[in-house]
């Protein structure tokens, strides 16, 4: 019971919110790069690559992010690799996000209408040219709404980094609560802050989806 | 770096792991059943003409879908406590998970309702079915059949998300792992084992839902549409 919520507490929470955004950006960029590789590997002509990437996706999607985080933080420390909370959280989120984005993007690449693939092949484009010049530009359009939607999941999931001691929004809320002990009020503030970050993205994703639905209704197979 | 892994030292705690996995499944079961009910009600509510009910359901769905589960669990936990209500960690965990998965279920069910062709309902009205009959036979059951795959993957995600309940000391699988690793100092082995257990649990759940789908939707089986 240490006084009331004042401007310093709010500043501290604000700083945590900035770290939440920072960690989300790290996870999005890292997970995006690895996820792109996963998406391509999932449709690779090599059977071995296809199976390996499918196993990776199944394993990560079958494990809670919390366990991946503990594995990255306590697990690596226990076998002699000391990592900072930021590195552990960034790496774990990257691996986690990559598995989901990879699957989303694979679906988007495969939903480019079949004639486009055949036409590119008919024009004697190499596999790389076909991907870069024909398929990916169209896949990016399809992929934008679900990717923006998934960014909401990323922001929410960074809250789990608090359990390995990374001071983002959730953790800074817990620290403020330790000195004030007004859990309900403080977690309500935290919830509102997360909502303020996530809801605009959700709306944006919905709008993109609607706009695409109008433009492509005669093109895309369901 | 001297890397020495000792899995047997951790594996001899298998009764604790098993108990944790059982509690995780129990949490997931109650939250899935209650959340499916809550979510369906919220989806129905969102479609009603009463703008107050529809608005309230929309606020519920959007609030839950745009805030982290961890924050929701803490709010339920401390919220109930500040009202002077004392419940076990298990009850609080089920309540928080139910509220959480209810919102996602509502969104999936709404998509299912919207996919019901208008003509089907008109045909049912033409056949003089009562409103209740129409809701049950023409709207609800076919909608569930349509979105069944999306629903089941949401429920598997819920089981994985229940790991967050370790933070309010519900003794589920992740909490058991935290305890064992602090007791044996074998964090890496412990979390690897727990990760494998979660993968097994999610495979078991998927297989369970798939078989349930075969029983529940024989029409789908006859038509050969994938579940």
Instruction: Output the CATH topology of chain B.
Output: MetI-like fold
Question: What is the string of helix and strand elements of chain B?
Answer: HHHHHHHHHH
**Spans of chain B with pLDDT under 50 lasting ≥5 residues?**
none
User: How many β strands of chain A by DSSP?
Assistant: 0
- State Rg of chain A: 21 Å
* H-E string of chain A: HHHHHHHH
Radius of gyration of chain B: 21 Å
Task: Estimate the strand proportion of chain B.
Answer: under 5%
Q: Report the mean per-residue pLDDT of chain A as an integer.
A: 91
- The CATH superfamily of chain A is known as MetI-like
CATH architectural grouping of chain A: Orthogonal Bundle
CATH fold label of chain A: MetI-like fold
Count of the domains of chain A: 1
* Class computed from helices, strands and strand pairing of chain B: mainly alpha
What's a quick, concise take on this entry?
Helix content of chain A is 80%, strand content 0%.
Explain what this protein looks like in three dimensions:
The complex is a heterodimer of chains A (222) and B (227). By secondary structure, chain A is mainly α. Chain A has a single domain (7-216), classed as MetI-like fold. Chain A is 80% helix and 0% strand. The longest helix of chain A is centred in the N-terminal third of the chain and has 36 residues, at 7-42. The radius of gyration of chain A is 21 Å and the shape is flat. Mean pLDDT of chain A is 91; it is low at 217-222. Chain B has 227 residues and is mostly helical. Chain B has one domain (7-223): MetI-like fold (Orthogonal Bundle). Helices cover 80% and strands 0% of the residues of chain B. Chain B has helices at residues 7-11, 14-47, 51-65, 69-82, 89-114, 118-126, 131-161, 173-184, 187-216, 218-223. In chain B, helix 2 (14-47) runs antiparallel to helix 7 and helix 3 packs across helix 5. The longest helix of chain B is centred in the first third of the chain and has 34 residues, at 14-47. The model of chain B has no long low-confidence stretch (mean pLDDT 91). The A-B interface holds A 58-59, 61-68, 70-71, 74-81, 152, 156-157, 159-160, 162-163, 170, 183-184, 187-188, 190-191, 194-195, 198-199, 202 and B 1-3, 5, 62-63, 65-72, 74-75, 78-79, 81-82, 160-164, 166-167, 174, 177-178, 181, 185-188, 190-192, 194-195, 198-199, 202-203. Chain B: This is ABC transporter permease subunit. Chain B: One of its GO terms (cellular component) is ATP-binding cassette (ABC) transporter complex. Chain B: Pfam families: BPD_transp_1.
